[in-house]
Amino acid sequence: MDRIRDLASRKAAVIFSKSSCFMCHSIKSLFYELGASPAIHELDQDPKGREMELALRGLGCNPSVPAVFIGGKFVGSAKDVISLHVDGSLKQMLIDAKAIWF
């Protein structure tokens, strides 16, 4: 869990992902379209990825990826991010965290 917190706090927007996950790809694409450049951590390519996946499940991420952090705070998984985008608050969260500028 400490590693997750450390990585999540290093950049304004952080996405824990797996390279073969289509929903992860969709969330990453959404962030890029909004102008953000999130830190991406591919759990299937990290030697400690399995441990991090279990820690993310402990946060309530089920499935464990994508897991999104903005401003060091856990936002949620794909459905949470999409809901925030639809209601217009995702962009403001990214602005407030200084992940994008307008």
Fold and architecture overview:
This protein has helices at residues 2-8, 22-33, 49-58, 78-86, 89-96, and strands at residues 13-17, 39-42, 67-70, 73-76. The protein has a 4-stranded mixed sheet with strand order 2-1-3-4. Helix content is 45%, strand content 17%. The protein is globular, with a radius of gyration of 12 Å. The longest helix has 12 residues, at 22-33. Strand 3 (67-70) and strand 4 form a beta hairpin. With 102 residues, it is an alpha+beta fold.
| Low-pLDDT windows of residues | none
Helix content: 40-55%
Cα shape? globular
What characterizes the major β-sheet?
Answer: 4 strands, mixed
For the biggest β-sheet, the strand order reads 2-1-3-4
Query: Please, what is the average pLDDT?
Result: 94
Strand % is 15-25%
Strands, total number: 4
- Rg (CA only): 12 Å
Distance between the ends: 33 Å
The SS-based structural class is: alpha+beta
Number of helices: 5
Question: Would you list the SSEs in sequence order as H and E?
Answer: HEHEHEEHH
Pfam families: Glutaredoxin
Subcellular location: Cytoplasm
Keywords: Cytoplasm, Redox-active center
Domain Glutaredoxin: 14-75
Task: Using brief descriptors, characterize the structure shown.
four-stranded mixed sheet; 45% helix; cytoplasm; alpha+beta; globular; 102 residues; Glutaredoxin domain-containing protein; 4 strands
